[in-house]
Amino acid sequence: SASLLMAYMSGARERVAYTQDRVGLDGKIAHLGWDSLLTVPVPFPAEFLHDVDMNFKILEQLVRLPIANRSIEVWYTGQDVKFAAKQLAHLKKARRRIQVLVPGASVKRKQWPIENYIIFLKELISREKDLSFVVLGGKSEAGLGKKLVQEFGRKLVLNLAGKTNFRQASAVLREAELYIGSDTGLLHIACALGLPVLTMNCFPLSLPKMQSSIPSRFYPYQVPSAVIMPAEPLDGCKDALRYGCEHENEMHCIRQIEPITVLQGYFILQKRIKEGNTKPMFLK
In terms of Cα–Cα distance, which of 192, 185, 146, 195 is closest to 165? Predict the structure, then answer.
């Protein structure tokens, strides 16, 4: 509502946004009056749409044309490409396949325990012996990468957590074949680069999906993916509208995801990659 007031006060000739009228608990539409500040209040779509497509619908209203190309992009410089090439040189020289790991997250509830990553990776490496992993993330997550290096060695794990900016991380992702990890900004950069995604999400699969829920809005966009989720909320978590877990500062519902389930999701994803299947898939 504050943003609508700012748009109105700006004097813009066109003010386009989704309607602020909401369906109440009784099933009736509550007319809040904020739509009077808009020149074009856009109705919410009947079907669930990714946030990217929701934004495209607003843009279509502005330009009065359908948008055919719905791909997303990310930009980086030649210097970033050189940075990535230098960091990954020893992995490429050893002819190892490169996958990116992002075990950290901005809040703990979105972070899968590092001990589970270790179990999963041991099983994966026993089956695919030519893999290597590059750890990305912020400075606060550098310790997670250090644990993985200690467990698997520098020949298999390169820890770049806390050592890149977003452009450099994008150039590193460009050289990888797969993103594995948390629901983070780097996940969406991976999608913009066309990278398949295997991600662990704290939203329990049994909770009702609605337009405002995280899985409905922010699943990996237009790439083959597998989103691994807990089957049920833990200890009565009912935060259905957002993350599905009320414990922001601890690994809670997400702890229920077993390493064997992620391993199964990995091989299901490999099949989807071969098929070119980019429909969202949620697994428990």
Answer: 185
